[in-house]
């Protein structure tokens, strides 16, 4: 006879409930778990929806108070979580070696794929005692429902309960495949009239703004290709489907390897850099701080600096490939 399946509520929601019940405040529970006030509120509501009425808390002005139902659940939940923690510690002690420190990181998907993952081996080589658990999403820092030790997003932005650490700057410029350039050279900006321009639907102003900065605001390309995800525009450029706008940080590896070229390196657009958002509850956590320091060091090493006008070829003169500055080093950081 098959074993009966246990109907367990969402475990992250139970953690949020237990912390809020002990602290008597969603705000204090959020600080303890390193998430936002809104995340605690959503987890508690999820648990209440899963369990059904009556409610677990009475919401007051600046605090929450357990209902009798909530108090009964806390009496069971707290000891259960303690037993789970003790069981995990005993298992780790039997293994004969200290368990790795776990670092839970949430980052933007395209950034993770094109910049973080190719470099993550460097961090693991430097810190073998740290296990990085990476998940991706595009949600704002204060809308994440899970608990993370560090969140990577654009910025700088200000979020209550988080400290912002900048680590990587970038600019945007046109990029295309060498094969496309061989078929139809780009010797001056006006030559874009013979090409397809690749657009991301979420960034409709990037190409018009760049053309205005390049002195050709009225230029009409031979065709346009619009894709719904930014990563797809870079893949389309790699596949020779047209010319895309590439953030320097996210195309640096492709430029260095010759998979992409930048025909007009002297005209670039500023854009938001990348920042690590560290919860205040992790402000003294050595594991999270080690990752922040590594991001800053690697970002300083791998950033492609903007080409100064005196060093860059005039856009009207063109360039067959992106002249990688001597300061760009892609070795171990």
UniProtKB/TrEMBL annotation:
CDD domains: PBP2_GcdR_TrpI_HvrB_AmpR_like. It comes from the Bacteria. Residues 310-333 are annotated as: Disordered. Belongs to the LysR transcriptional regulatory family. Coiled coil: none annotated. Residues 9-67 form the HTH lysR-type domain. Residues 310-321 have a biased composition (Low complexity). Keywords: DNA-binding, Transcription, Transcription regulation. InterPro entries: LysR-type_TF_proteobact-type, LysR_HTH_N, LysR_subst-bd, WH-like_DNA-bd_sf, WH_DNA-bd_sf. This is LysR substrate-binding domain-containing protein. Gene3D superfamilies: Periplasmic binding protein-like II, Winged helix-like DNA-binding domain superfamily/Winged helix DNA-binding domain.
């Amino acid at each position: 006879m098959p074993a009966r399946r246990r109907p367990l509520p969402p475990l992250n929601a139970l953690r949020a409930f237990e912390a809020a019940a002990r602290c008597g405040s969603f705000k204090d529970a959020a600080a303890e778990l390193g998430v936002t006030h809104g995340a605690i509120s959503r987890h508690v509501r999820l648990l209440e929806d899963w369990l059904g009425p009556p409610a677990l808390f009475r919401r007051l002005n600046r605090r929450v108070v357990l209902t009798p139902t909530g108090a009964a659940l806390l009496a069971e939940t707290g000891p259960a979580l303690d037993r789970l923690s003790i069981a995990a510690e005993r298992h780790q002690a039997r293994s004969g070696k200290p368990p790795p420190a776990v670092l839970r990181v949430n980052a933007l998907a395209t950034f993770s794929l094109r910049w973080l993952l190719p470099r993550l081996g460097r961090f693991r080589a430097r810190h073998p005692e740290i296990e990085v658990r990476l998940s991706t999403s595009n949600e704002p820092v204060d809308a994440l429902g899970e608990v993370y030790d560090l969140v990577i997003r654009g910025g700088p932005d200000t979020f209550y309960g988080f400290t912002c650490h900048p680590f990587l700057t970038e600019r945007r410029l046109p990029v295309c495949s060498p094969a496309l350039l061989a078929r139809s050279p780009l010797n001056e900006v006006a030559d874009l009239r013979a090409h397809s321009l690749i657009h991301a639907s979420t960034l409709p102003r990037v190409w018009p703004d760049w053309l205005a900065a390049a002195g050709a605001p009225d230029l009409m390309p031979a065709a346009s290709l619009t894709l719904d995800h930014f990563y797809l525009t870079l893949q389309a450029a790699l596949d020779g489907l047209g010319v895309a706008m590439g953030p320097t940080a996210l195309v640096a590896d492709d430029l260095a390897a010759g998979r992409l070229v930048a025909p007009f390196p002297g005209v670039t657009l500023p854009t938001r850099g990348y920042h690590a958002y560290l919860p205040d509850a992790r402000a003294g956590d050595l594991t999270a701080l080690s990752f922040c320091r590594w991001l800053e060091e690697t970002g300083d090493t791998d950033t492609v600096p903007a080409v100064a006008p005196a060093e860059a070829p005039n856009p009207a003169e063109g360039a067959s490939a992106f002249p990688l500055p001597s300061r760009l080093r892609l070795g171990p950081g």
